[in-house]
Amino acid sequence: QVQVVESGGGLVQPGGSLRLSCAASGFFISVYDISWYRQAPGKERELVAGGSIGGKVNYANSVKGRFTISRHNDKNTVYLQMNNLKHEDTAVYYCYAVRIYEPRLDLWGQGTQVTVSS
């Protein structure tokens, strides 16, 4: 079964850290661009961090300097390290994979909840 599965979410205090994992099964991430999105209650889904197979990364301005996306092809997993978490980072975080060659194929995970609260 071709899918991505997120894990690592939870409840953390402001200033704390979490590492999210996006584990791929049924395909190799080496030919997929993989990004992290998030959706807070009442808000649209937004891009948090994007990572291409060529190593290019980009971040939302709100997380620059605090979040780091990393790709580990040997583990077929992409991580999102989140440091200095803030209340406004509370959201469901989703992994999104897009195959780089035709036919295009894209996959969403089921999401993992991150709650930042004291």
Give an account of the 3D structure.
The chain has 118 residues and is mostly beta strands. 0% of the residues lie in helices and 53% in strands. The chain has no helices and 11 strands. It has strands at 3-7, 10-12, 18-25, 32-39, 46-51, 57-59, 67-72, 77-82, 91-99, 106-108, 112-116. The protein is globular and about 45 Å long. The model has no long low-confidence stretch (mean pLDDT 96).
Order of helices and strands: EEEEEEEEEEE
- Please state the CA-atom Rg, rounded to the nearest Å: 14 Å
The helix count comes to: 0
Shape: globular
Average pLDDT, rounded to a whole number, is: 96
Task: Please specify the SSE layout and strand pairing.
Elements: E1 3-7, E2 10-12, E3 18-25, E4 32-39, E5 46-51, E6 57-59, E7 67-72, E8 77-82, E9 91-99, E10 106-108, E11 112-116
Parallel strand pairs: 2-11
Antiparallel strand pairs: 1-3, 3-8, 4-5, 4-9, 5-6, 7-8, 9-10, 9-11
Question: Which key features would you list for this structure?
Answer:
118 residues, mainly beta, seven-stranded mixed sheet, four-stranded antiparallel sheet
Short characterization:
By secondary structure, the protein is mainly beta.
